[in-house]
Amino acid sequence: MLLALDTSAGSSVAVIDGDLVLSELSTEDTMRHAEVIGELIAGALGEAGVDGSRIRTVVSGMGPGPFTGLRVGIAAARAFAWGVGAELLPATSHDAVAFGEWEAGFHGPLLVVTDARRRELYWSSYDVAESGIARTDGPALCKPDEVPYPDFERVDATQVSAGALGRHAWAERQRGVVEEFGEPLYLRAPDVTVPGARKRVS
Fold first, then answer.
1. Domain count along the chain
2. Could you give the CA distance from residue 156 to residue 5 in angstroms, rounded to a whole number?
3. Residue 192 confidence (pLDDT) above 50
4. 164 CB contacts (<8 Å, ≥6 apart)?
5. Residue 165, domain extent
6. Which of 43, 67, 95, 116 has a Cα-to-Cα distance from 32 of 20 to 30 A?
7. Does some domain include residue 110?
8. What is the pTM of this model?
């Protein structure tokens, strides 16, 4: 049994058994990740009729995404996995969007774009074949007028499905492809800075 979480664009939580999504709850609210993530986890587990102790794997969306929102989802995934003794798998959030397009029957070059705020966009490019998806470039950050690959089919995603994220990550694991749990894909430095030395007051 698997729990997937993504807060790179809104918040989404899904409970998955093998290839079947038992429940998925999402919100496009990009300002209240910390307030809603606990409710979404509890709601998804309740809707699926699954006790948290039955979760053996937790998939965490690693972005790209804005700093604060993305941190909330990753922290929640880490805490839940630690609490129930589950393994923790990372997953690139844009992969879930491309996976969803592949499941819908799309084949060809694909560009996934999400809002990075500050008048910037995140993007990733994919080769979507009959056999599955392969990321060919990105994730990266750019201005709206600098988005590459204008000839690719473009998907501007306002949300990342935790169901698609978890199913794709599990399918990749079954093929022996497992990402290391590295740094989140913020793709820009946080606003906070280390304060300088205090000025002497004479």
1. 1
2. 20
3. no
4. 96, 97, 99, 100, 103
5. 2-174
6. 95
7. yes
8. 0.90
Determine contact, residues 13/25, Cβ cutoff 8 Å. yes
Identify the CATH number of the domain in which residue 26 sits. 3.30.420.40
Domain assignment present for residue 83? The answer is yes
Residue 190 domain flag: no
Find tokens 């918040």 and name the residue.
11
Instruction: Supply the DSSP string of 129-148, one letter for each residue.
Output: ETTEEEEEEEEEEE-GGG--
DSSP β-ladder status, 11-17 and 2-6: antiparallel
The mean pLDDT of 127-131, rounded to a whole number, is 97
C-beta neighbour count of 104 within 10 angstroms:
7
**181 is a domain residue:** no
Q: Are strands 2-6 and 120-129 parallel, antiparallel or unpaired?
A: unpaired
Split at pLDDT 50, 70, 90, the class of 174 is confident
Burial class (CB in 10 A: 0-12, 13-18, 19+), 58: buried
pLDDT at 36 over 60: yes
